[in-house]
Amino acid sequence: xxxxxxxxxxxxxxxxxxxxxxxxxxxxxxxxxxxxxxxxxxxxxxxxxxxxxxxxxxxxxxxxxxxxxxxxxxxxxxxxxxxxxxxxxxxxxxxxxxxxxxxxxxxxxxxxxxxxxxxxxxxxxxxxxxxxxxxxxxxxxxxxxxxxxxxxxxxxxxxxxxxxxxxxxxxxxxxxxxxxxxxxxxxxxxxxxxxxxxxxxxxxxxxxxxxxxxxxxxxxxxxxxxxxxxxxxxxxxxxxxxxxxxxxxxxxxxxxxxxxxxxxxxxxxxxxxxxxxxxxxxxxxxxxxxx
Length: 291
Prior knowledge:
alpha+beta; Double-stranded beta-helix; 3-stranded antiparallel sheet; 15 strands
């Protein structure tokens, strides 16, 4: 990675600065990604306000809400306004709702999601987005960092763009969720969720923008490329998520909600709070087949 200004950031920053909203207050958190939205109750969104929330979400890629005293059903209802909810086959669910993943960390269970990733890219039809609600947050730490993979693609040089044009990569749950499974259990899950082949550069189905769509957790290899060459290229592409100029950081409080576009962002849950408790619940919306 070369030092110096990220020229692609300026254009996106200026574009976002020109946006107008009539029914909600939007405060950007960084140059190209992330905004806090005020003036809404997620449990009582009329259609006009919902339309502006959706607009802000598409433009800023991840949006945040404070002081949302919503329950699990209301969280699911909000998510369902964007599409059908998935049930996660590997993560613990809320006791009453299989569509809600419960992420409960404490002295016995520390956070391990501190790797850059997009959720469930190992599915043939990955997630559209996720709604994450804070039930209990640590006194200090436990932030989540989000990175803009539209900016990551825009920041690539012409030679690197040419190398990945039209190429695909294989995504696989095995190298993450497969750890610790018995051979029999792993084989059964691999049959149920076989590796998925997705374009390295996908097109956002609603905005038409180009997105760098590989991550260090679930992308196993670049297809039709020598193993060594492919591993080197995949590492270079995955490291684009680490560029601070493409990132925003959110400090959680009880009843805070984050809603991110899983097609265009990656995230990293900072694991600096152990042994404090951090309890979150997440609903994930089924998306579309990348193209």
